[in-house]
Design a protein that fits this description.
Number of strands: 0
Helix content: over 70%
Number of helices: 14
Distance between the termini: 24 Å
Shape: globular
Radius of gyration: 22 Å
Amino acid sequence: MFGFFVKKNFWDSWENIGHIVIVNMVPLAVVVALSFLGLNLFSSESQVSYVSLKFFLFIMLASVLLSVCFFAEGKNALGIASFGKGSFAEYIKSIPHVLKDAVLLGVVIGLLICVALISLPYYYRMWRPVAEDGSSAQTYNFIGLVLMAFIGWFLLLTFLALQWFVPLQAMQGNKFIKALKKCYILLFDNLWFTVGVEAVNLFTVFLTVLSLGILGSVAGTVLTWTNALRLRMYKYDWQEVNPGLSQQELRNVPWKELLERDVATFGPHSFKSFFFPWRAK
């Protein structure tokens, strides 16, 4: 199943490269604007204070704006993942409809980032206190290590879970808290698959940096999440029509049968469709 997901996601991205590039201009413009704002706000400070109100508000603003960029691509990504096409007009039209969820998730992510920037260094210093001469103290406080590990694992698992939020809302449109709960359920029920999807997105991050935000970026990331969740949901459809399965039977998901229609629709892909993606369909 994972192999088909990677293959399909690659070709979906390549065959919609024009759409991805155009959509990515929006978050790129947002990042540039935020960079200039950050330089104006913090250029006079020799060291940025993570506990200042100004820094907190800046993180919140950045998180909310970028969250809107991600959510606005949700319906497009679902259309592409379902063998359709993306539309920049649809991207713009989606913004008013996703504002509520996007703002709420942006605030949550902003808070998580602030928690990470403040608590992790604090607990690290508690674990390894610094002496007056600047050297590390000889005695360690392992309570600080335990708290740092707890916060670190909580943040890691939460960010892994939140990758399902945008595609989940595009597919189901749940209320915010219900969607959050479902994200954690999806994480723990599909832990290694979630980690694998995040690993695929590491390549997207590399591509984003290499192309200065033109390739990959928001549109590529949302498409990866959506392709992954759309295929994974077949497992839950199968479980719904086969109640009463044992735990062993539930682990043996018949992916070949469940993906048969998608594999047939996806079909073979030639070098022609690689070099001329706009003529692929």
